[in-house]
Amino acid sequence: MSELRTPENAPSSASAKSVAYPVTDRVQAAMALSLRGCEELLPQADWLQKLARSEATGVPLRIKLGLDPTAPDIHIGHTVVLNKMRQLQDLGHQVIFLIGDFTSMIGDPSGRNATRPPLTAEQIKLNAETYYRQASLVLDPARTEIRYNSEWSDPLGARGLIQLAAKYTVARMMERDDFTKRFAAQTPISVHEFLYPLMQGYDSVALKSDLELGGTDQKFNLLMGRHLQQEYGQEPQCILTMPLLEGLDGVEKMSKSKNNYIAVTEAPNTMFAKVLSISDALMWKWFNLLSFKSLDEIAALRAEVDGGRNPKDAKVMLAKEITARFHSAQAAEAAEADFNNRAKGGIPDEVPEVSLAGAPLGIAALLKSAGLVASNGEGTRMIEQGGVRVDGAVISDKGLKLEAGSYVLQVGKRKFARVTLSA
């Protein structure tokens, strides 16, 4: 990478702003796509002119998304911002997938009420490889610039870091919500945590980004990039934040800890069925944030549903689109067929196999041992509700004991196990 420009030798942004480029219909369409589903786009007037300049000059804009590989994999809630990247990528702009291998060693304090423990270099490397592989299911890897912020952060050195820290005040840093709350609560704040937003902002200087994307919790860090670019004489980036996606429950944000998520590595049948499990109301937000259908297509589909079409038809479309994105169109078709088969009481082709001993065994205990329920009590409740089948037949006898043999057990619509029971 070429040497970073300093405030003394960086080009002025004045020349870029002195020309007012025409806002064509294509530019207006690009602006509408940029705004689709976003929480904030700041400043909108600047972004409109950047789009107009790109249209007039043919020079793609540089659009940056930075992710710290703090976990080994991602769920579809993380792909909301990746979808926005792909939309802008399809307009012909240069997207930059920035892996924060350096900033991961600091630990992002965003939304934290305690210091985040830094990761080891080995953890970061393994997580980064998985992140990019999974992100490539949304982005076009052939048109994606992959960068690691250690490229410019490591060479910065102690002298460069001190010079960078001089460009922001402690008072401004303490305006950050999580720092303010921790300070008021007398919760420790380590000095190195102040470096995180500075280093993320410096990434924007290094990459000369025109737009940086992030979640709503990243707004402070994204604005830091604008500030530092101005300090270094660059035209400041615009920032675009995307909302957090509600999970399967339709209430809490999608999270593994809340078990309301769909992993991008989820099996096709499970992924399809989970999408179909969301509420009709939540479906339209998911369409807006996760689907690549145009807003006109979604509006037309919603009008059909409002006019009497079964909302399940729309949900099936969404489930197939998401499943196909992370697997294939064939896998999505097979998942739909599997779901329909289960809905009719059929047994799917792929069923986990379990071998157990202790026949004759009570049905509730058997369901628990097969991993289909968490407790005997839950097994009994499912029987009372008519949600348990053995070899396709609904079980109503809570006292049923099964002799040695092979059985297909089903709890609800999606849980199956092929059990071989011995004495």
TrEMBL record:
Primary residence: cytoplasm
EC number(s) reported in the record: 6.1.1.1
Taxonomy of the source species: Bacteria, Pseudomonadati, Pseudomonadota, Betaproteobacteria, Burkholderiales
Chain span(s) of sequence motif 'HIGH' region: 69-78
Record localization: Cytoplasm
Binding-site list for ATP: K256
Keyword terms of this UniProt record: Aminoacyl-tRNA synthetase, ATP-binding, Cytoplasm, Ligase, Nucleotide-binding, Protein biosynthesis, RNA-binding
Any one GO molecular-function label of the UniProt entry: tyrosine-tRNA ligase activity
Catalytic activity annotation: tRNA(Tyr) + L-tyrosine + ATP = L-tyrosyl-tRNA(Tyr) + AMP + diphosphate + H(+)
Family recorded in the similarity comment: Belongs to the class-I aminoacyl-tRNA synthetase family. TyrS type 2 subfamily.
InterPro entries recorded: aa-tRNA-synth_I_CS (IPR001412), aa-tRNA-synth_Ic (IPR002305), Rossmann-like_a/b/a_fold (IPR014729), S4_RNA-bd (IPR002942), S4_RNA-bd_sf (IPR036986), Tyr-tRNA-ligase (IPR002307), Tyr-tRNA-ligase_bac-type (IPR024088), Tyr-tRNA-ligase_bac_2 (IPR024108)
Its job: Catalyzes the attachment of tyrosine to tRNA(Tyr) in a two-step reaction: tyrosine is first activated by ATP to form Tyr-AMP and then transferred to the acceptor end of tRNA(Tyr).
Protein name: Tyrosine--tRNA ligase
PANTHER family: TYROSINE--TRNA LIGASE, TYROSYL-TRNA SYNTHETASE
Assembly mode: Homodimer.
HAMAP family: Tyr_tRNA_synth_type2
Annotated motif 'KMSKS' region, positions: 253-257
Organism: Roseateles koreensis
Domain RNA-binding S4: 361-422
Top-level taxon of the source organism: Bacteria
